[in-house]
Amino acid sequence: MRVLGLDLGERRVGVAVSDPGGTIASPLLEFKPRGRSEIVETVRRLVAEHDAGRVVVGLPLLEDGSRGEQARRAEGVAEALREALDVPVETWDERHSTVEADRLLRETGRPRRKRRGRRDRAAAAVILQSYLDATRG
Question: What is the pLDDT along the chain (137 residues), one digit of tens a residue?
Fold first, then answer.
């Protein structure tokens, strides 16, 4: 079963998708939504397009594990997705995913300006891979 992973940034949403076996996450795309409804419609289309059986939304918890404003926003988006989709939607702790995505992108050797446009989808892949690794088996 394919799984979609989402990294909800302040301006962009990064999306990753797993292989059909739910083992490996790959960056897919990023988009600039004009509100929650556009996120829901785009994810609905991607679920159908990729025949995804689950959606994982990154939950940006604070360092102490508590929920700040961004985490509450992510939970709101996750709830809107649950209401709109026919597949399970889960949240997943995404602390340090952007730092890890930046590290992985630096290792590619691409210039900084070319890495910038890939950061959110790379963070979505880090979040999704963490979820897949933790829930496998």
Answer: 999 999 998 899 999 999 999 999 999 999 999 999 999 999 999 999 999 999 999 999 888 888 989 999 999 999 999 999 999 999 999 876 565 655 665 666 666 665 556 778 988 999 999 999 999 86
- How much is the pTM? 0.87
Angstrom distance (rounded) from CA 18 to CA 119: 18
CATH classification of the domain holding 108: 3.30.420.140
CB 39 within 8 A of CB 31: no
Ranges assigned E (strand) in 82-128: 89-93
Domain range enclosing 48? 2-135
Residues 3/128, Cβ–Cβ less than 8 Å: yes
Structural tokens at position 61: 């918890």
CB 17 within 8 A of CB 28: yes
Q: Please report the sign of the dihedral spanned by the C-alpha atoms of residue 25, residue 27, residue 29, residue 32.
A: positive
Report how many domains make up the chain.
1
